[in-house]
Design goal:
Number of domains: 1
Distance between the termini: 12 Å
Radius of gyration: 16 Å
Strand content: 5-15%
Number of strands: 8
Strand order of the largest sheet: 2-6-1-7-8
């Protein structure tokens, strides 16, 4: 079975930072599912697809290949520099709330995990509850809202709060903590300390 450390949590809780640090520490790949939804959003905007139409977005999602290993690409085209564009920030929550689009992305995320020879650290919003319910280790990150907004230098406090609401109330795979996920509050903590704590959890799990 592929080793999967699944990390969920709201925007700015430190998922990407922790995932990359853990991957470096353990020699694993990183699967950034949020970047996959942003890449899909970029392609929607590029092609003029209605980001509120599940039929249109899901059809596009199934017609393209979105990868994040080792960098973010759509059909082989690098899109990493556009992930944090203001229009992408504005539209990504709408895209990520569409059931058909999520279904297509979940298939792509699982395919990347199974193709990873080393195992991976996956981070996003529904990994412990939907994408990888049998993950080796499940973690739910939290952090103070003001600190999360500060970390998201490209988004205001109100924008982060809006995304929290959309992510937690959407009908398709809402953000929530899995019953067996360990909660990790990252407020004011050093990344090195967080990594060592998670490594300790992993050692007691495997």
């Amino acid at each position: 079975m592929t080793l999967v450390i699944a990390i969920d949590g709201p925007a700015g809780s430190g998922k990407s930072t922790l995932a990359r640090a853990l991957a470096d520490r353990l020699g694993l790949d990183v699967l950034d599912t949020g970047a996959m939804y942003r890449a899909l959003t970029i392609e929607c905007l590029r092609r003029g697809v209605n980001v509120h139409s599940d039929d249109e977005v899901s059809a596009l999602a199934r017609s393209i290949t979105v990868t994040t290993l080792p960098d973010v690409r759509v059909d082989g085209r690098y899109v990493g520099d556009d992930l944090r564009r203001p229009d992408v920030n504005e539209a990504v929550s709408s895209v990520a709330a569409l059931p058909g689009a999520r279904s297509a992305m979940v298939e792509a995320q699982r395919a990347q995990a199974f193709a990873s020879p080393r195992g991976l650290v996956a981070e996003g919003r529904d990994l412990t509850t939907v994408v990888f319910p049998d993950a080796t280790l499940k973690i739910f990150l939290t952090a103070d809202l003001d600190e999360r907004a500060r970390r998201r230098g490209d988004e205001s406090r109100e924008s982060v709060e809006r995304r929290d609401h959309l992510d937690s109330t959407r009908l398709a795979s809402p953000l929530r903590r899995a019953d067996d996920a360990r909660v990790l509050d990252t407020t004011g903590r050093r990344i090195g300390d967080l990594v060592e704590e998670v490594v300790g959890w992993l050692e007691n799990t495997t």
